[in-house]
Amino acid sequence: MSLVTAKNKEKKRDQWGSKIGFVLAAAGSAVGLGNLWKFPYSVGNNGGGAFVMIYMIFLILIGLPLMLAAITLGRKTQLSAVGAYGSIKKKWSFVGGLGVICGFFILAFYSTVGGWVIYYCLKAFTGGLAIKDPEVLGGIFGGFISSPVSSIMYQGIFLILTLLIVIRGISSGIEKASKIMMPALFVMIMLIAIRSVTLPGASEGIAFFLLPDFSKINMDVIMNALGQVFFSLSIGMGVMVTYGSYLDKDANLLGPAASIPVLDTMVAILAGFATLPAVFAIGFKASSGPGLMFVTLPAVFASMPFGKLFCILFFVLVLFAALTSSISMLEVCVSYFVDEKGVNRTKAAVMIIMVMYIVGIPACLSMGPWQDLHILGNLNFFDFYDKLTSNILLTSGGLLLSIFVGWVWGADHAIEEIEKMGVKFTLAPLWKFLIKYIVPPAVFIILINSFKSVIEAMF
Ligand code: PHE
Question: Is the pLDDT of residue 5 over 70?
Fold first, then answer.
């Protein structure tokens, strides 16, 4: 450990300016397109309330314990993902490396959707979304995503914005941005949810969202629910390890480890309430996939007083939420090159963004001209990146994190770290039990099924 400390002193590692800054930035990473865009349409695609129920079970039994494990590992080692694993057990640094790779693939398709959000911000400003008819709104969305030049251009703008924030470093860039954006987003999504559930005809959507239909549960739904937990919490690719590493030794870890998932889930549920009742009220299909938010929400705004203003505000905030997440993905990759390879921060960030853009363009094209270019089974690039990251890479990262903290580093050592500075961790025995005996086998079984479905898709 003394070696690690010495290494840090030498480099004067950046740290969070305040504890609330860390919580907001970590919550900023968690809350993003995963909650606002992906959660509602995944609920729609995976049978409604049944998916929500399984999501909640996984969140409590798997997501929460892993969140604490990740932050603790980061704080203990004061190193980003690769170094954090490696400094405890050399051979395990590959888990951090897996996270870096995962970051590339997530940001590749995340930036596609980020680009859509930028386009929608501009469109909202010019009043081009003040339309009630879902068919017209569907046409606008379809027209935009299928035009390759503009969607690739907006994707590039999204990546450049991400780059600009990350270059400014931890406390001045990421933290400052999150402090303003997160609370504003929360208020906004609450208002939209209230409007959506009070629309005439909303009750069918509310029932679809809340009442589980057990006959809808199958292995795919289970796999997707777990993938969504990892994706939404930003767990399994080293984000929380890296963010935790910028925490100072006297910070209490229990508060953030509980409040981040709670906040994240509240936003996802609110996004569900904002979107799904409206889907039914305007006669749209819940299973219409990635376009769900972009088609239904403008219709909700069109039925609200000051709808145009709300529409602008909303898409600007979604953009902020997406950026506080995308910067965390980029940060994992950048901090690897900065901490482990001694590369200059700006240089590393520019280089990585360029590669991400190249990896991302096929995902963007998959929504247009390359829609039917299937690279695995019936998955195009966009779907493939999504499944590869949520169902395979993040899930593997989560499994390895639980084995590492529970067994390799040892749950007792982790508890010791959590209880530093006089913190009392009353639920320590429960956490230890979950991280050692529940999380690894549960995630393992689901992961095996994900691999099985990949293999089946290949042949
Ligand atoms: N959690 C983010 C969201 O919900 C996405 C994300 C995944 C960010 C993995 C970082 C790492 O949008």
Answer: no
